[in-house]
Each structure stands twice: as structure tokens, then as C-alpha cells.
Amino acid sequence: MCPTPDRAPNKLSSFSRINVVPAPCAASKHSLDTIKSAAYRFLMKTIDYIYRFDPHNPSVKPPPEDVEVARRNLENGNKLFSEWMQSCRTGTFSQGEPRYVVQCNGLEVGMVRTHGELPRQAAFAVVVGCSDARVPMEMLFGQGFNDLFVIRVAGNVLADECWGSIDYALTALADSIKVVVVLGHSGCGAVTAAVDAYLKPLKYSSAKTSFMLRSILHRLFVPVHQAANGLLAEWGPDAPLMPGYRDALIESAVCLNAALAAYSLHLEVERGWRTEVQVLYGVYNLFTHQVSMPPLGNRKEEPKVNLAYAPTHPRELDVLAIEMATRLRPAEMGLPPVSPPSP
Ligand SMILES: [Zn+2]
User: Which residues make Cβ contacts (< 8 Å) with residue 282, sequence separation at least 6?
Assistant: First the structure.
């Protein structure tokens, strides 16, 4: 038998980075390998993004009490995540205590007080986002178990099933939900497909486009048209011939798609669900890993994280289309090239 390893005092043992190092055991090659692996992990510098539960302080992160606190929780969580991603990009290692820590309370980690009792669902935000694998909702908002009620569908379009899920969340989780968030993202494959169908309608009309794909693209044509109108108004009649037109159309349509969905949700929430719930929206940038609205259009602007309140009138969508067209003018563009769209 190998000796039982001593556990160093560690009040944060549940999710700590290096927990227990087994003592040496000459009879076991497996143990030696384990020791080598643990020593390597101990010596190497790492850039950790940690979910932490402190059993001595299980309610360190109380649920948000109102819309503003909920919004700040999401924005601060995204700042944490984007800073961690920036550290990974630049190789800025954590020294000693990890800097990127997502606190979890007892409820979040599924803790229950009575044997056999199920954890009570208590999300504070409904998030409608894209299925894109590069856009992991809980992680990019710095949230954990039981924080978000997430609906993901390609292009974050509002199909009937999405409405049903949102309705359920606002009804069944009425005690905890404070905000509904629509999140688009740069380089969205679904929006890109809708833009290409708009630019090359004959190709789209062929039988190669499946019925299933069309059901998503049809819901994206309105924001694509709005974005195209904005570019035409701001760039002039030669807009489609100007460099960067397609990329600008995609990024503007991403923004308008999120805004239009937020506007539609705002109407429904106001119409009869819960007036104390607010609808927010934003766009996740695949380069900066920040959520903002309006998204960055050029390098002259300071990076920022913010979620906007949903438009309350269709005119605001037209204004947004013009603003995006201004930000995305070829002369103003300073962002790196748009990444290839996902399938
Ligand atoms: Zn997408």
C-alpha cells in the first residue's frame, strides 16, 4: 500500500489548481508518473481561469437584486474573461494567487440542504445567443452553474421554440430572472450566409440551399436589408463596389440582428410578461473577447465592455444602421480581418 498523502491546509480545496500531491511509492510506476506530472504542473507558469467555491463562505456571491446589478454582473464577468484571454494571448502569467476567479455560491454548485432535494433553478439572466462554439455563454460572461438560462441557435434568431423557452423562463423563474440578453457575435456564420444570399440571390435560390438552412436565413434577411440601407445612405450609391463592403455588411447585420431581436423581446416583455425585467443586447467580438454595443468599429476607440438596453422604437434601428455604417467606413476600419465564418 502506498502511504496516504498529507493534504496541505487549503480552505479552497474544492476547486484549487493543485490539490493533493501523492507521496512517493517505489513499487508503483504510475505513482512516479503522477509525482512528475504534479511537479511539472507546480513548476510551470499558468494562466488560470478558475471556478471557486469556498465552503467557509458559501454565499460569497449573492444573486443580483435588480436589473442594474444583473447588468454589471454580466459586464464585470466579461471583463474578467476578456482579460484572461488577453493574458493567454500575450503570455502574461499569473503569479501566486490566480487573478481570474469566478466565485460560486452554494446554490450554483448544486448544493442542497435536504437529502434527495434537487437544486432550485435560479438563473438571473436569460441569454439568447448563437450556437457558435467560439461563443461559450457562461464562460464569456464569467458566470457559473445556475446563473444563466441559455438559448442557443445559429444566428441567435428568434424561432417559435426560442419564444417558448423565453416564456418558460420568465414564468417559471419569475423570482430570479432580472434581464434578458440577446448576444450576437462578430464573424457569425449564419449572418454571413444570409449576407451572401442577399448579395447573390440566384445562387441562394438554387436547390442546394436546404430547407433547414433557409428557415434560419429567412429570419436574418430583415437585419441584412437594414444594414444594407444604412451602408447605402452613409457610403453612397457606390457602396456595394467599395472595398470592405461585404465585411461591413456582415458586421452591421450582426449588430442589427441582435438589436432587432432585443426590440421584439422588449415589446413582448412590455406587453404582458414582467415590466421589472429589462432586455439588453450586445455583440461579442471574437478578437477582443469583449461584449459591447455598439461594437468597436476602429482602433481609435478605447476597448470597452457594455450591454445596451433594447431599442424601444423602430427608428432606433435605423439610427443604429447609420451609426454602424459610419463606424465601418473603409477609411475608419482598423480591426483585424474578419475570421472565416463557422460552418
Ligand atoms: Zn453565429
Answer: 181, 182, 183, 184, 258, 291, 292, 293, 306, 307, 308
For CA atoms 336, 337, 338, 343, give the dihedral sign. negative
DSSP secondary-structure letter at 273?
Answer: S
> Tell me: the pLDDT tens digits for 228-257?
999 999 999 999 999 999 999 999 999 999
Determine contact, residues 249/271, Cβ cutoff 8 Å.
Answer: no
Domain spans of the chain? 122-327
Distance between Cα 129 and ligand 1 center (Å): 8
CATH topology of domain 122-327: Beta-carbonic Anhydrase; Chain A (3.40.1050)
Gap from CA of 311 to ligand 1 centroid (Å): 21
Q: If you measure from the C-alpha of residue 187 to the centroid of ligand 1, how many angstroms do you get, rounded to a whole number? A: 7
CA of 183 to the centre of ligand 1 (A): 10
Positive or negative, the Cα torsion across 324, 213, 162, 105?
negative
Q: What is the pLDDT of residues 296-310, one digit of tens each?
A: 655 566 778 999 999
At residue 82, φ and ψ (nearest 5 deg) are -70, -35
Q: What is the pLDDT of residues 136-180, one digit of tens each?
A: 999 999 998 889 999 999 999 998 899 999 999 999 999 999 999
Q: What pLDDT score was predicted for residue 222?
A: 96
pTM of the predicted model, to two decimals? 0.81
